[in-house]
Specification:
The chain is built from eleven helices and 13 strands. The protein is α/β, with parallel strands linked by helices. Strand 1, helix 2 and strand 2 form a beta-alpha-beta unit. Helix 7 runs parallel beside helix 11. The structure holds pyridoxal-5'-phosphate. Pyridoxal-5'-phosphate binds next to helix 2.
Length: 314
């Protein structure tokens, strides 16, 4: 909806990262535009801002960064590039409700920032999301797009001068319903508390795993608050698949965030990508494991994960 509100569509290009969930790229493709991938930084997995300008063409209309795992991208540099080339920025902040970097929060420098309230997210009502913007024109466009392109709805109909609603543009059904909102709103007050609980868990993992030579812990950059959505570790020297197998055998469920988007069958076929195109994203995709990480995880489960990793790697 953000991309549509910015007038992006067929023939346009949007520069983005391959180290993300497919939803980032399908959002671009669903407008008719083409995702143009740029490789990522080795330490954070975020879009490598120093490579963006090489990927720009006269068709580029926007940059779509992802604040991966909850660590914000370098938004100040990204904004400078966008200004220099007259590009929009749409932030995928699905992982980054609580994050900050260099005094900037998601949505502050971008035209919009998009949040996910899917079941695994830091704030959740099962499914859903939100877009934020500081721009009143984008706000107006989004409000039309999210509900059938309809004007004069709901409360307007209760006013004295009843106006029949009109459909003024092509629209969708992406509004949040009251039932989901009722699940979501009471969680707002607990955001910081849950973040602190995840910080405790992250600190426990870090303390216990830091000395393992073939294991790298997630990076938190200076001047940043990491939203701590996921706790991805990297396993070096081709041992990742074995470790996944061993953890699964012990009933420890892990995920891989992410297999790079350009190597998923649909994207490699449609956009003609192959292994080697974005080596850093591929290196992360083949070495990362996200450990169990949520506020209510029992202490015993954290201990079991640590013991399983130590027994395999130490
Ligand atoms: C980085 C990222 N972007 C977008 C999405 C899509 O969010 P949703 O499932 O709410 O559409 C996800 C979902 O997991 C994600 O991890």
């Amino acid at each position: 909806m953000s991309l549509l509100a910015l007038g992006i569509g067929p023939g346009d290009e949007v520069v983005t990262t391959p180290m993300t969930f497919m939803g980032t790229s399908t959002a671009i493709m669903s407008t008719g535009a083409r995702p143009v991938f740029v490789d990522v930084e080795p330490h954070t997995g975020n879009l490598d801002v120093s490579q963006i300008e090489k990927a720009l063409t006269p068709k580029t209309k926007a940059i779509l960064p992802v604040h991966l795992y909850g660590q914000m991208c370098d938004m100040r540099s990204l904004k400078e590039i966008a200004n220099r080339h007259g590009l929009h920025i749409v932030e995928d902040a699905a992982h980054c409700i609580e994050g900050t970097r260099d005094g900037i929060r998601p949505g502050q420098l971008g035209d919009t920032a998009c949040f996910s309230f899917y079941a695994t997210k830091n704030l959740t009502c099962g499914e859903g999301g939100a877009v934020i913007t500081n721009d009143s024109e984008i706000n107006k466009a989004l409000r039309l797009l999210r509900l059938h392109g309809m004007k004069n709805i709901d409360s307007n109909q209760k006013q004295k001068n009843y106006k029949q609603s009109d459909m003024v543009i092509m629209g969708w059904k992406y509004n949040m319903d009251n039932i989901h909102a009722a699940m979501l709103l009471p969680q707002l007050d607990g955001i910081e508390h849950r973040w602190n609980t995840r910080l405790d868990i992250a600190n426990r993992y870090a303390k216990a795993l830091t000395s393992i030579p073939d294991l790298r812990l997630p990076v938190v950059l200076p001047n940043s608050k990491h939203a701590l959505h996921l706790y991805p570790i990297r396993i070096d020297r081709g041992q990742r698949e074995t470790i996944i197998g061993k953890l699964m055998e012990q009933g420890i469920s892990i995920t891989v965030n992410f297999r790079p988007v350009h190597l998923l069958s649909f994207f490699s076929r449609t956009l003609k990508h192959s292994p080697g195109d974005f080596p850093i994203a591929e290196e992360i995709g083949s070495s990362t494991i996200s450990l169990p990480f949520y506020p209510s995880i029992p202490d015993g489960d954290v201990n079991a994960v640590i013991a399983a990793l130590r027994s395999e790697l130490v």
